């Protein structure tokens, strides 16, 4: 019975904490505070995002192509999902933001990067645009964004769906998942980055509030990732970003982990198969839209704060957006130029992290750390 209760509690915690740790927001001193009244007017609405995309497209001299995914469908509340395409090279890079509607600054970071690519001029940017084509989805969840909630809401039942748990073989519940998945299966990217916000936490062994966490949704050297073939490349990507950004002002970067126990000094890595970037790495074939099981490495970034729990202060928005922008730009450039592949995968362990208590999974509760896991 106790074990069963533990399992239930664990499952609930996974749902609450994975890709987001708002439960810790109240526990951490010293973070930015908006006294619970985050001003979401300082972030972009759906209509503002569309306007910015159109402005970028029209001033880009044909470099940026903005379109909707309407041919695949619309959101539950009937909104179009937008994509912007830039670059002419063969490597396809997928950047998605705001799959969680209350995680807002990431959209701005994605749009800023798109603007940089639209302007060009700079050598590094030219190189990226020659070698790659980038697909930006700056607002994956427009309904959640407009409601300022994490989820989308099913039109027929009113049920709330976390779009980052909906890419499963059991079937997609929300229209947004069907739309974006079908587009993904057509594009067949080579690499993806997913942008999120998290609650407040501290870098292990310090009193520094984490400003940015680097995440891989199937734990490196864990139960699932080595079997995908992307164990080394995802670790190299994150080590590359860490090295590039760790000395940038005001950033305190660590590994994305959940269920941090500061007394014991331990935490859990996530190993979640229903997350979008996990499904990409596992080559999910849903409704026979991906019959060759196309797959690719994919990682995610977590920026401090979200607009629901009031942990996002206007003062800090500028630098939080900037570090996200810089990390994105750095990783895209490192990937395109092949610099990422020169990194020692074991440098992943240079990124600060709490000693591992186990893996939080969405398929088998908590999985203990194995003897060969390297921890
Ligand atoms: Zn999120």
TrEMBL record:
Hydrolase is among the record's keywords: yes
Active site per UniProt: 302 (proton donor/acceptor)
Species lineage: Bacteria, Bacillati, Bacillota, Bacilli, Bacillales
SMART domains, per database record: Zn_pept
Family in the record: Belongs to the peptidase M14 family.
Name of one Pfam family that matches: Peptidase_M14
UniProt keyword annotations, A-Z: Hydrolase, Metalloprotease, Protease, Signal, Zinc
Source species: Mesobacillus selenatarsenatis (strain DSM 18680 / JCM 14380 / FERM P-15431 / SF-1)
Domain Peptidase M14 residue range list: 42-335
Cofactor list: Zn(2+)
GO MF, any single term: metallocarboxypeptidase activity
Annotated Gene Ontology cellular component terms: extracellular space
Signal peptide: 1-25
GO biological process: proteolysis
Name of the protein this chain belongs to: Peptidase M14 domain-containing protein
Superkingdom of this protein's organism: Bacteria
């Amino acid at each position: 019975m106790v074990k069963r209760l533990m399992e239930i509690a664990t499952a609930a915690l996974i749902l609450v904490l994975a890709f987001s740790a708002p439960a810790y927001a109240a526990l951490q001193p010293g973070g930015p505070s908006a006294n619970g009244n985050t001003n979401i007017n300082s972030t972009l609405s759906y209509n503002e995002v569309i306007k910015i995309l159109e402005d970028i497209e029209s001033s880009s001299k044909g470099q940026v192509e903005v379109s909707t995914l309407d041919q695949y469908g619309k959101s539950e509340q009937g909104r179009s999902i937008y994509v912007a395409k830039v670059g002419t090279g063969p490597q396809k890079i997928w950047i998605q933001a705001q799959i969680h509607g209350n995680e807002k600054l990431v959209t701005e970071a994605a749009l800023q990067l798109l603007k940089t690519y639209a302007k060009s001029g700079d050598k590094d940017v030219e190189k990226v645009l020659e070698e790659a084509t980038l697909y930006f989805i700056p607002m994956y969840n427009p309904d959640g964004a407009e409601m300022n909630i994490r989820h989308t809401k099913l039109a027929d039942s009113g049920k709330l769906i976390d779009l980052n748990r909906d890419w499963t073989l059991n079937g997609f519940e929300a229209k947004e998942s069907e739309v974006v998945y079908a587009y993904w299966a057509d594009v067949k990217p080579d690499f993806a980055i997913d942008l999120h916000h998290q609650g407040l936490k501290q870098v292990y062994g310090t009193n520094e509030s984490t400003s940015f966490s680097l995440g891989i949704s199937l734990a490196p050297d864990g139960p699932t990732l080595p079997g995908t073939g992307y164990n080394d490349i995802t670790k190299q990507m994150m080590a590359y970003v860490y090295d590039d950004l760790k000395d940038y002002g005001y950033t305190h970067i660590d590994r994305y982990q959940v269920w941090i126990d500061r007394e014991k000094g331990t935490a859990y890595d996530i190993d979640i198969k229903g997350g979008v970037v996990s499904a990409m790495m596992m080559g999910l074939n849903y409704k026979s839209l991906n019959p060759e099981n196309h797959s690719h490495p994919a990682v995610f970034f977590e920026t401090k704060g979200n607009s629901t729990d009031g942990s996002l202060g206007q003062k800090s928005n500028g630098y939080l957006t900037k570090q996200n922008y810089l990390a994105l730009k750095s990783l895209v450039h490192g990937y395109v130029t092949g610099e990422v592949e020169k990194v020692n995968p074991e440098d992943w362990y240079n990124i600060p992290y709490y000693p591992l208590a186990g893996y939080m999974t969405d398929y088998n509760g908590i999985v203990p750390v194995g003897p060969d896991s390297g921890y």
